[in-house]
Amino acid sequence: MATVEIVSFGFLHADAPQADIVLDLRRAFRDPHVDPRMRQLTGRDRLVRHTVLRTRGIRQLLKATTRQAQAYATGPSVDRIVIGSGCAGGRHRSVVVAEKLARRLRRRGHTVTVTHRDIRRPVVQR
């Protein structure tokens, strides 16, 4: 079975990583950054996680991406699948989606690593 590498990142810091699947969470999903209570938090904080996961469409996206990754894994020469999970600053939505996706894929037998490329960067002023 293919191993899966998930990289969360912020489009405002640098280009998306080279990946087989890139999720762009910037426009379609609620941004915790706009709420001053969550701005300095990250996707590892409960309030941010709950806010993101309650956003309409996120669970369907997770389900569809899980299926897409499994489809890639059935390829005859695939040993590694890279998934990029991106939002504006790489601290909120991308982190929550990366972690939740990793859990789903692990439950299906994949070996998964998660890297949060931009989680420690300063909050983007916008």
TrEMBL record:
- RapZ C-terminal domain boundaries: 3-119
Q: Superkingdom of the source? A: Bacteria
UniProt xrefs under Pfam families: PapZ_C (PF22740)
InterPro entries recorded for this chain? RapZ-like (IPR005337), RapZ_C (IPR053931)
Specify the protein name: RNase adapter RapZ
